[in-house]
Amino acid sequence: MATRTTERTEKLQRIADEPVGARMKRFLTAIPTWVLWTVVVVWTIPTIGLFISSFRPVDQINTSGWWTVFTNPQFTLDNYYKVLFDPQGGSASMSESFLNSFAIVLPATIIPIAIAAFAAYAFAWMDFKGKNWLFIGLVSLMALPNQMAFVPLLQLFNNGASLTLFGQTFRIFPELGLANTPAAVWLTHTGFGLPLATFLLHNFISQLPKDIFESARIDGADHFTIFWRLVVPLAKPALAAFAIFQFLWTWNDFLIASVFLSGEGEPLTIALVNLVGERGSNFQLRFAAAFVTIVVPLLVFFSLQRYFVRGILAGSVKG
After folding, report:
1. d(Cα 85, Cα 247) in Å, to the nearest integer?
2. pLDDT, tens digit, for every residue of 60-79?
3. Exposed, middle or buried: residue 79 (CB in 10 Å: 0-12, 13-18, 19+)?
4. Distance between CA atoms of residues 52 and 70, nearest Å
5. Which of 131, 181, 210, 265 has the highest CB neighbour count under 10 A?
């Protein structure tokens, strides 16, 4: 009995010492293939129904389920045409909102990655006073609800910020006139995304071999050269993982866009909500609009998929 207990303990210890990726692979290998395919099919059925409905005439949608298309196939491109080029109720077309979303998403994805990569390298491989406390304070901002910052940010973007001391008023932030502009939206996304980006990239960069940095310093490389020539190429998986997260969050965001942006320049999420009339008219257009909205995120995800898992496990794999 004692020998069996010892063997079981040693087996559990070996499993605990395995990298996370190896344990995940062992778990997935133990699951029968038909179970995984069943989960995939069940998970995909609603999306298939949504996709088929986007091509069906409105009278067919009102009178029968999407599965009847296999016995009575009737398709039309009218829903996609109206969504992209002929919106109802005077709202902006999805093609215009498509470009507006890119004007918000691209800066809101690139800027946090650029700033967070520099910050992560500094926290991981540079020594300066208060580094640990500053890093803890930055990461703790992830626990702050974003909604709490909406009113201060609106005030900041509209009127700037002033500080009154001893009867004197000092302007600490200028009036930039960013209200109701795409810049206000992507600056907000940048601020909200920086803590997680810095944390994720720091976990990866801090695990890079110390020897390569020491060799680069011996050869006379400064911090910027080390960062650009060594860290950035090696950190591609973590950079791609965060790029996927930030892109999807920003592309699918409705709350921040509706708070900081009104009128012209609305992104796809706001156009999708405004597509249906007050009494539910033109509801059939939402099926097509949903797929117009998800085309770009799907392309981004599948193009960066090979980096995604490696980036998610950044800093969590031993050895």
Report:
1. 25
2. 888 888 888 888 888 888 88
3. buried
4. 10
5. 265
The confidence score (pLDDT) of residue 319 equals: 41
Rounded mean pLDDT of 132-160? 86
Spatial contact of 277 and 89, defined as CB atoms under 8 Å apart: yes
Share the mean pLDDT of the chain. 80
Q: Both ends of the chain: CA-CA distance in Å?
A: 34
Q: Which of 4-13, 32-41, 282-291 has the lowest mean pLDDT?
A: 4-13
Q: pTM for this one? A: 0.77
Residue 24: half-sphere exposure toward Cβ, Cα within 13 Å: 9
Give the number of other Cβ atoms within 10 Å of residue 246's Cβ: 25
Note whether 107 and 186 are within 8 A (CB).
yes
The residue assigned the tokens 């012209």 is: 264
* H or E segment and range at residue 171: strand 168-173
3-class secondary structure, 5: helix
Largest interatomic CA distance in the chain: 81
Distance separating alpha carbons of residues 248 and 294, to the nearest angstrom: 10
Element (H, E) at 303: helix 285-303
16 vs 83: which has the higher pLDDT: 83
Cβ atoms of 141 and 238 closer than 8 Å? no
- Helices of type H across 126-266: 131-140, 150-159, 182-205, 210-218, 223-226, 232-234, 236-251, 255-260
In which residue are the tokens 């395995």 written?
18
**Integer Cα distance of 6 and 278 in angstroms:** 69
Per-range mean pLDDT, top range of 65-69, 81-85, 252-256: 252-256
Which long-range contacts link 133-139 to residues 24+ away (Cβ below 8 Å)? 135/198, 135/202, 138/194, 138/195, 138/198, 138/199, 139/195, 139/198, 139/199
Q: Is the pLDDT of residue 233 over 60?
A: yes
Distance of CA 2 to the CA centre of its chain: 51
